[in-house]
Predict the 3D structure of the following.
Amino acid sequence: MSAVPSRQARLAHAAKHAELWNAGQREDWIASWRTIAPAEVRMFDPVGTEEKLGFDTATGDAFDMFQSVLKIKMITVQVNGNEMAWVCENYFGTEPNVQMAYSIETFAWDDSGNLLIKTYYPMPESVGSDGDPYAHLLNDQQ
């Protein structure tokens, strides 16, 4: 039997992802992720940089690093087969220095429930696989 989360579970998570993030509800946001990440998590955030491993890295660490300087607006969510994708409008920074950037984020589960996350957003060509993909976005905002 496949351990891929149901379509309904994935859509339920997507429906509250931005709301929980924007409200700063860390524990509820992480718990929502757990409903769709039953096994291992691998993440390329963004694609082209070093792979990040583990549920905590993809959730709690990301929340702690970005939540205070990032607000998210979910634009669309698509679920097909064992995959899901969404597009977000992201607002980075603090007033008066807020920048908007779109992201495309993809999620693919194997039959064991392992999740591969890939994110795509504007990235300077100078950021390579060993560079800091967040420095240009955060710009001393934290």
Remarks:
- The chain has four helices and six strands.
- The longest helix spans residues 7-22.
